[in-house]
Specification:
CATH topology of the largest domain: Rossmann fold
CATH superfamily of the largest domain: Glycogen Phosphorylase B
Helix content: 40-55%
CATH architecture of the largest domain: 3-Layer(aba) Sandwich
Radius of gyration: 21 Å
Largest sheet: 7 strands, parallel
Strand order of the largest sheet: 3-2-1-4-5-6-7
Strand content: 15-25%
Number of domains: 2
Structural class: alpha/beta
Length: 393
Amino acid sequence: MKIILAANTDWYLFNFRLSLARWLRTAGAEVVLVSPNGKFVSDILADGFRWIEWNVGRKTTEPLHEFDAVRRLAAIYGREKPDLVHHFTIKPVLYGSLAARLANVPALVNSVTGLGFVFLNQSRKGAALRRVVLPLYRLAFSHRNLAVIFENPSDQQQFIDLKLISEEKTSVIQGVGVDVNRFLPLPEPSGMPIVLFPARMLLDKGLGTLIDAARILKETHPVRVVLVGEPDPGNPATVDVDTLRAWQEAGLAEWWGFQAEMETVYAQAAVVTLPSLGEGLPTVLIEAAACGRAIVATDVPGCREVVEDGVNGLLVPPNDPTALAQALARLLDDTELRKRMGAAGRRRVEAQFADRLIITQIAEVYLRLLPAGMAHELILKNPGKNGDKNGVS
């Protein structure tokens, strides 16, 4: 049995899907990872996986180039002859589904990991992109043996309402899961408290709202606002390096850039915030909760699936810097409240978002698509059914 996992960055595969790949390997599958080249390829190879380069531009929209990306991926699938392909992120879902049809891939799983700029942006450019992308989704989702995984019910319902996919072909699986043995709760450090924003440097993630809230918050509270992540030049909502440095020079926020060991970053924070306009299911919030940190997020799809208002964090309206500043101030002023919310978040992750639980649900989707003999192999090794409490290697 051969399974291909395909995404638009090697970073995504390494950080979010390596546990799935490892588990599939223990179930006897040959697992091949496909993505553009990047600095995480060496880590993927060191883990013993075969990786194939697929050049697809995140910024490109020129038709001939885009069709060539489909053709190249179809050629990969034609050579590899996988039994099942699982696509993650928008371009792999769209282009990969078309490539799978061209190469006669027998089983196809698409994970819609968030609506992204095309759905969230209300500008003229966003509207124009929707007119192009929606028909592509309908075509991509017309494969005869297909499952589409959403990370929250709101995204699922939106795709059903737009008639992009029939409900019986959909599932909701809440995110990618996190390793609860890696992300552990540690006591807050002493010193000036840190409000942590761990995400790509995008306006869609609420970064502009956070900076406005920081101006308000710093008038009354000694606090460090720390931004961890990088700009995303392939996204129209990106914040450039010059702007990030200007905010830092103005004393509004510290920009730490990319950090590989996020568990050590969360340990330095008092509060974690993601005032996003919309998410699939934000892994950073699950990681933060696993580390016992109270969260302030926006009351939007994705965030509200992780944060229960008043229990493990606080929810605020999107695009409201005053409400965000007030919620952050409330947590900064109450150490015991932060501790209670952090402990509640940890319990929530263990019960709902541990990676072994998520992998179990993904395996069940695979079972519905694979032939009976191959499905039987996965049943035997399914972490939810064989008594293995760790679930993944």
